[in-house]
Amino acid sequence: MANINELIDEIEDIMDNASSVPFSRKVSVDPDEIFEIVRDMRDSLPTEIKNAQWINDEKERILQEAENEARSKVQNANNEIKNFKEQAKSQYQRMISEHQITAEARQEAQRILEQANQEANKIKQQSYQYIDQLFTKSSENFNQLAQSLEKNKQHILNQK
User: Fold this and answer.
1) What percentage of residues in the chain have a pLDDT greater than 70?
2) Which end of the chain is more exposed for a tag (fewer CB within 10 A), N or C?
3) Ramachandran quadrant class, 30 (left: phi over 0; alpha: psi -120 to 50; beta: rest)
């Protein structure tokens, strides 16, 4: 089955090759031939609409995947932050319970806690950067899809 543009081109060819009516801009064409092309156009429209719907569905799927992945990355980062803090606190408690010098224990625990916070912040920052990249890429993909749809729409409209 031909696409809409090919069918429009076919009508234009028929009009260009049709015999003209003297002293007017009118032409004589075979109505059956034109009606057949119009029927073909009607038949191909659902395919064009299905293609546009598929593109829209793909856009929604990509957005949902990006959002799910972003949520997962943030959740993982938060879990790692929690684990780092728990490990630091646990190590701090363990050092005190082992009767080491209290000052050394506090100092070491503070260092571990700071290190854990730094690592947690680093992981969190990396997660946000990754999320930003995902959304940027998704946005670029959607812009390309939108531009393609607009281009196809304009092409079809310009064929009128």
Assistant:
1) 95
2) C
3) beta
